[in-house]
Design brief:
124 residues; mainly beta; seven-stranded mixed sheet; four-stranded antiparallel sheet
Length: 124
C-alpha cells in the first residue's frame, strides 16, 4: 500500500524558515514526479512546487518563487520543501503528492497519491 507521510510543519514567526519532508513508502518513487500543494480553510487546494523524477526539473507557484526550494532524495524515497522568508499568508495545511509519471505538472488532478498534510502556521 502506498503511503506518503509529511513532517516538519509547525508554528514559526514571519521571516522564519521551516523544512517539510515527505517520506514515501510502499513502492519506489524514483521514476515519478512529486509535488507540494497547500490549502487554506475555505479555499481550494493550490499548487506550491513540483519536482521531476530526477530532481533536475522544478516548478514553483509565483507566490513562493525565490523563497521556497523543492528537492528530493530518491535513495531515501523522500521529498523536501525548504521554506524561507515565511509570510503569514503561507499559513496552510501542506500536502505532498506523487504522480505516476516522470514529468512534473502543477495540476492537482494529475497526481495519484496524497499525504494527510502537515500544518504550517506563520505568525506576524
Amino acid at each position: 500500500q502506498v503511503q506518503l507521510v509529511e513532517s516538519g510543519g509547525g508554528l514559526v514567526q514571519a521571516g522564519g524558515s521551516l523544512r517539510l519532508s515527505c517520506a514515501a513508502s510502499g513502492r519506489t518513487f524514483s521514476t515519478y514526479a512529486m509535488g507540494w500543494f497547500r490549502r487554506v480553510p475555505g479555499k481550494e487546494r493550490e499548487f506550491v512546487a513540483a519536482v521531476g523524477w530526477s530532481g533536475g526539473t522544478t516548478d514553483y507557484a509565483d507566490s513562493v518563487k525565490g523563497r521556497f526550494a523543492i528537492s528530493r532524495d530518491n535513495a531515501k524515497n523522500t521529498m523536501y520543501l525548504q521554506m524561507n522568508s515565511l509570510k503569514p499568508e503561507d499559513t496552510a495545511v501542506y500536502y505532498c503528492a506523487v504522480r505516476r509519471r516522470p514529468e512534473l505538472v502543477a495540476f492537482e488532478y494529475l497526481y495519484d497519491y496524497w499525504g494527510q498534510g502537515t500544518q504550517v502556521t506563520v505568525s506576524s
